[in-house]
Model the fold of this input.
Amino acid sequence: MSVAPVVSMFVAAFILLNAIVGVVTYITLLERKFAARMQSRIGPYYVGWPHGWLQPIADAIKLMIKEDVVPTPADRVVYNLAPLVFLVPCMLIFATIPFAPGLGLADLNIGVLFFLAVSALEIVGLFMGGWGSNNKYALLSAMRAVNQIISYDLPFIFAALVPVLLTGSMQMSAIVNAQQGGAGWFVLYPVIGQLAFLAYLIAALAAENRVPFDILEAESELVAGFRVEYSGMKFALIQLGEYAHMLGTSFLGALLFLGGWLGPGPAWLGPIWFLVKAVFVFLVLTWVRWSFVRIRVDQILAISWKLLLPATVVLLHGGDGLLGRALAAHPGRQPRDGRDLPQPLPPTGDRDVSGHVASVSGPLPGRAGARLREGHRPGSLYRLPAVRVHLPAPGHQGRDAQGREAELRQDLHARAVRLRVLRAVRAGVSDRRHHHAQDLRSRDERPARDAARQGPVALAGLRVPALVGHRQQAARHAGATEGGPRREQGRQGVTLETLVFGLVALALLGGSLGVVLTPNLFHAVLSLAGALVATAVIFLLLDAAFLFAVQLLLYAGGVVTVLVFAIMLTERLIGEHITQTNRHVVNGAVMSVAVFVGVAGFIMRSNLTAAEPAPADRTVEIARAIVGPFAVTFELLGVLLVAALLGAIYFARTED
Amino acid sequence: MAAPGLSAYLVLAALVFAIGLFGVLTRRNAVGILLGIELMLNAVNINLVAFARFEADLAGLIFTLFVIAITVAEVGVGLAIVIAIFRVRRTVDADQLNLLKG
Done:
């Protein structure tokens, strides 16, 4: 067990948090100055010489020493928790943003998805504040927020996914690297880039509740919206969260469309370029804010559902198919043709002899994203490149087969180490070098005839998950026979994982009990949100990062929001003072306990020996499986969702 | 103790499932019943992902995706029905929705 990486992560996170708070504080000053300039004013001037540069600090101090008022009818717990719940996702979104190559907390391979998923959680804190204040303005604002944010989540995600499709990777650093050279920035791509950037800006405005879309804090109708009752430090926290989210969205926009840290000058200028671009996006949003008037609720919803959503869907298709073809022929891109189809394991090693250093394409960190992109052609999302090993020049094939193998092994080992660090970062557990070293060793030591039959390329089987199907079985058996006992030894030290598991399990059980036992239905929904987030963390512990993001995005962000909406519409007759349980409490309890005892007994009796743990990251595999063996099921799911959508509309619509 | 194994996750999921079942059986409010169903589906998801992890089988992850998507559909339709019932009967108390009782 090693604590050092965890501690260093904490230190890095602490530094990043403070940096964000500092930047956010001063971005408010920037906005005020900018707005003042637009309105021919001076703006903050007197606190701090010159031009009031101490104003944000003075504001912060003022907010901190102000009286903290809790309204008497407020739901105290919800009211007090709301600013924190609001702030945490707004800060977490910065965790996956790399500010320069290698300068960031965690450059996850699902970075963009993580950002979108976590930022979808912001809504929970928002309606907690609106409901907990027990104020008509706040409640109306929360209802409007639910409307608006559900409507704008989809266009926002779709617009952000266009660069992802153009890159072929969700890893943020890969997206930036893909914009290198030529007319590289995605915003400069013909038609599709500009349209996607425009859609991104509009959706971002709506997601940030900036002026043309700020119905949920419309001053003329709702005073200050969901935070009308907040004062002092809690108000400051909400404000901080809002601006941090704004800044995060600006950073994401700069990264996705404006090339991130790319720019002229030496490499150390990278973060500064990135900041400048993010501030540029921020100022564009601010410019819109101070130029337009607020539009009505129905107009806002119409823009989202009738214009932005179809447009972004078309853009997504364009990014992958039609215009992707034009992009392929774009100068600065290497045109792709049939010969460059990603090939699953060529039979012999003498076909892919291009590179000088052995390199592997596949779901590995580092250059993995760039490699994925290389295989990008129209529609190639569905045929992600399989593992390919490029070996050194053919002339030396006979001479240094040994040397090449050693080189390859070294390279793969370096990748495995990086993978381990990433996993440790993601799971928050101590490192598992043993496992990876184990895998490397066990498969390297495969019998020689295997290698002879498949050529040197057989080594590509290293660490790279096989496709779904019979090979999966083979891999499992191989691992089970070779790595069993030694793997157990490697597991002995991992106590941090146990600790995290225990904490998350407690949170999950507490949340679940809250769901069924609290008399207040709103608290029950909040408990459900907690339980769902805890489940997402459990998915993370189980190495399913993709499902973690989906869980946050759909469940915690979507389902909970819809449930709150339903409560707001129906709660009137059943309040806190009426008993919430029916007369079958005892029967229900007996039944539940019986079910649990039965299932647990079954689990205990069955001899569950863990087979080979799955490879670390399986996002690419999931994508392959969805368009491969599970394609029909996936289509059926789409039909089901459409039917459900129509059904829900049919049921919920009033006759008018 | 080593890292939590498969059975730890399974027992946890069974607990959550039982708690959700209790909620479904005892809640009066129809929305509360839906909350319980959410919990039960969630427990199933934990099971699927745990098996996918420890048995190196991809199907568990795919099915979790499907379950999540179907849950969204279920919540959408379920809540729409609840709201429609509320409009007609002015109540969401499941005990009072007994028109079909003989």
Remarks:
- Chain B touches chain A through 76 residues (CB under 8 Å).
- Chain B has a mean pLDDT of 81.
- The two ends of chain B are 57 Å apart (CA to CA).
